[in-house]
Amino acid sequence: MHKFLPFLLIAVWIQTVPAAAEALDQPLRAVIDVRSTHSDGKHGMRELAIMAQKRGIQVLAYTEHDRTGIRFGLEPAPQILGYTYERPSLYTTGLDAFFDGLKQVRSTIPKMTLFAGTESTPSYYWTGMPISGLSWDEITTKALKGLTLHEADRHFITLGIETPEQVEALPSYDLRNVRQHPWFSLAVWASLALLSVLLLLVFRRKRIPLLILLGSCAAFSFAWLDKAEIDPDVDFIESAREQGLFVVWTHPGTLSGVRSGSMDVQLSTLPYSLRAFQDPTADAFAAKYGDTDSNTVPGGLWDRYLMGYMKGEHERPIWAVAAGDFHFEGMANESLGNYPMDVWAGGRSPEVVLEAMKKGHMVAWHMPGDRNIGAKKLHLQDMTGTRLIPGDEKKVVSQVILHMELVDLTPSQTSAAPFSLKAEVVVDGKVVVRSQVSLQTPMQEILQLAPGPHVIRVRSGQMEANPFLVHVFSY
Description:
This protein is α+β, with helices and mostly antiparallel strands. It has three domains: 1-27 and 370-475, Immunoglobulin-like (Sandwich); 28-177 and 230-360, Alpha-Beta Barrel (TIM Barrel), CATH 3.20.20.140; 183-225. It contains twelve helices and 25 strands. The strands form five sheets. A ten-stranded mixed sheet has the order 13-12-9-8-5-2-1-14-15-24, with helices on both faces. It is elongated and about 95 Å long.
């Protein structure tokens, strides 16, 4: 009889897990990466909140562009000796107006959890030469043709901003880490210096003002050459974290970053996935968004980073989020809510939800416009009763069960159309289980783990769940 006892215990255990799971709160439906008319979106803040409410979204984050100024100037003082082309952002529409609007919408729609945040460009740099290949008549209208602007579409999202001062403290707001064209600056200052010398030789009676001009050229050149090199990514991440903000790499595998921009400037932002998974890095990265990348494939960059964290190679894990870059309904055939998240939080206040995101308690989704499927439950439990939700890190015994249930959150359904996921259970970068999960059929999988650290996560073509980080007891 005793040899059948382990199987009997497992059978009893499987039967009791669903009952235990009932104690878990259903997660909140959240959408971040949304722009309003306070930057380059086309919907007002209140309109967006109402749209979200109608679609079953409970948490909405307005992540406005803090500054989208494109500056071309002379080092080391481009803000004085240069031109800045401003596109709509909090810098142009006003920080006070944005936070007043947030306060008003929070008061009129209290059932919604509303965040403030930014989408920020930590830096960019120039190559090429301006006015190349232009006739004299075209120079005034196409003065920047021939230039390529690199990394202007390399963005961070921040969440948790509550005051104008927090936005102003971000290095992206004053363009402090924008790198100007070095050879153009050097050529201009060298030309001015040479002109000063020639004029000095010709007009000896004007020696003093010419010497002043020559000295100014030399001073500017030395100041530029002596300028300290700053890593703009590190500077932004550290500045945001000092304020307690949640920082996200957006679209790290971008496929649309090379194109023509304003004023005939060419834009070039290549995929930056490798940087996103190197220390120091942000708190999270966009795993579900408009482009397609390979960061979350089993054994890819994300798995390798997480396994390195479990071995002590990284200070903290990096989480997956959904970020749809929403500007207006119908843009690129997308709708508000196509890229939602399920967030397990102990309450509905912005502070509590933000803390849950920082702990990775979430699942990222890409949903078609006519459906709104979520994770009703997703947890891992061992035979001692130790239970984990996505993002948890705990010690467990070697045998665990993974439980997942789906729920249809589509408001006012007109039909009960079937829905299922071809889910994969990934352990340490390898797919160990493939399972069909539907609204009627939950997932329940028993996993036998070897002693030591493990990264366990669930994924499909439509969702990426944050991992369970487990340390299995060694007997």
